[in-house]
Design brief:
With 295 residues, the chain is mainly beta. The protein is 4% helix and 44% strand. The strands form four sheets. The chain has a nine-stranded antiparallel beta sheet, with no helix packed on it. Strands 5, 11, 12, 14, 15, 17, 20 and 21 form an eight-stranded antiparallel beta sheet that branches. It is globular and about 50 Å long. It starts with a strand and ends with a strand. 39% of the residues are buried.
């Protein structure tokens, strides 16, 4: 077991804390959700709500929730995904973010933690696919998250998924997101119409966009903190960009009215035309690496 790994609790939830080379990482066993990632003497990399609640069976606002086997509302997913998961009142962002995962592997130098979702027939609908789902977390001089799907069934599987990353920023109105130029996107704030990005993205209002045909690198530039967060991605060509702005913030749970100023979600994903299709026996890894550097 890594020497920097200790078990802690947050409210009702068991968590793991890792210290490595001036970095601190906190992971909840529920949902395999990374709650915190920070470097000593720097602002946090991930945003975690000041009003976060740590209850069994309830999602936590912030960090990196795992959305699977669909992202967002099931009704807004591709038809192949909607048809596969038939159940009344399906929860937003899928089935696994508020269920227990199991710590199955740890290693030192670099620090590695692997958690697996082991389906319980009593808590999941019959339509849940026979997919082995694991999240590997690597902490060396940066943070890497890798979500692995292995279709262990005899039928093909269609799903969408996301590593729903909340990033901490000094002031969203000063932040620029680089790496989206010319990429098509679907705008949930414009009745799900399609558009194409021109230049970097800045934030002036509520933003909820699903970007497609992405390259492998995005940059969050934060001039007030003089920091760049680089996202290096593999196994994904789509991402969701979200900030609730002023009005919606007042309607969100576990979210202060002014918290929109201090966060932005850049979610590594497989959504819309980038949905994931797995043949029987097929495996797929989707990973993202977060690196900070001076701006």
């Amino acid at each position: 077991m890594p020497t920097g790994l200790t078990q802690i609790t947050r409210g009702e939830l068991a968590c793991w804390q890792v210290r490595h080379r001036g970095q601190t990482l906190v992971i909840a066993e529920q949902g395999a959700q990374v709650l915190e990632y920070r470097l000593d003497n720097e602002p946090p990399v991930l945003w975690l709500s000041e009003q976060a609640q740590y209850h069994h069976g309830q999602g936590i606002r912030g960090g990196v929730p795992v959305c699977w086997p669909w992202f967002g509302g099931l009704a807004f997913n591709p038809e192949t995904v909607r048809q596969q998961y038939t159940q009344p009142d399906p929860p937003a962002h899928g089935l696994v973010r508020a269920l227990p995962w199991t710590l199955v592997h740890t290693r030192q130098s670099p620090e590695q933690i692997e958690l697996a979702f082991q389906p319980d027939p009593d808590s999941l609908p019959e339509s849940c696919p026979a997919v082995q789902l694991t999240l590997k977390i690597i902490l060396d001089n940066a943070l890497t998250l890798s979500l692995a799907n292995h279709n262990q069934g005899e039928e093909p599987v269609a799903l969408t998924q996301a590593l729903h990353s909340y990033f901490a920023v000094s002031d969203i109105r000063q932040v620029t997101l680089q790496g989206l130029d010319l990429c098509p996107y679907v705008d949930a704030m414009d009745n799900w119409h399609s558009h194409r990005q021109s230049g970097p993205l800045t934030f002036r209002e509520e933003t909820d966009r699903l970007y497609l045909q992405l390259g492998h690198t995005l940059h969050i530039d934060d001039p007030e903190w003089q920091r760049r967060i680089t996202l290096s991605v593999s196994g994904s060509e789509s991402a969701v960009v979200w900030n609730p702005w002023i009005d919606k913030s007042q309607r969100l749970s576990q979210f202060a009215d002014d918290a929109w100023q201090r966060m932005v979600c850049i979610e590594t994903a497989r959504v819309l035309d980038n949905a994931l299709f797995l043949a029987a026996g097929e495996c797929h890894d989707m990973s993202v690496r977060f690196v900070t550097s001076p701006l």
